[in-house]
Amino acid sequence: MPAHPLKLMIVDDHPVVRDGLRGMFDHVTDIEVVAEASDGFEALAMARRARPDVVLMDLRMPGLDGVGAIERLHADHPEIKVIVLTTYDTDADVMRAMAAGVAGYLLKDAPREELHRAVRTAAAGGAVLAPSIASAIIGRPPTQEPSPREVEVLRLVARGAANKEIARTLLISETTVKTHLKHVFAKLGVDSRAAAVVVAMERGLL
Length: 206
Fold this sequence. Notes:
By secondary structure, the chain is of the alpha/beta class.
C-alpha cells in the first residue's frame, strides 16, 4: 500500500451515478475520492483545487462534454490520468476519447474490482481498456512492425513517460518523439498512446 492513498475525482452529470461510484471506493484503503464534478467546466475547476491522480470521466454531459474536458485537463495537468467511464462503446466515441489522450476506457457495467484495478493501473502509467473495446482495437490488422527505436519510445510511453521525458531519456527532440509516435500509431492501427500500449503488449512487442 502506498504511503498516501491515490487521489480520485469522479465526473458525471448524474448524482446517483456519482454516489454509486463513490460507494465503490468507500472501503478501499489505497484510493481516496477527493472530488466530484457534474460537468466538464466544474471538473477543470475541481482538478485545479484537488489535484487528483486519476479522474473517472463521463463522456456525455451538458456544457463542456467529457472529451472537451479531457483535452483541457491534458493540456493544463498532463500528470493527471483520465479513465473514461461511460455507457457508450461506439467506434466514434472510443476514438474521440483515445485521441484526447486518455489512460483508459471502461463501460459503466464494469465490476467494482475492475474499477479499483483500473485506477491503480492508470496511476502507475498503464493503459486500461474494457475487453470489448480492446478486442475491437486489437482486431485491426497491422500494417508493419514498429522499428526498434519506435519500440523504445513505446516502452517509455507504457511506463507513463511524457514526450519531454522520453526525449530527455533517449537524447532526441520532442518533435522526433512525436514523429516516432505518429509512425507507431499508423503501424499498429491505433489512435492513442493507451491503445498503442495495449496492442503492443498483445503482440509481444513490450
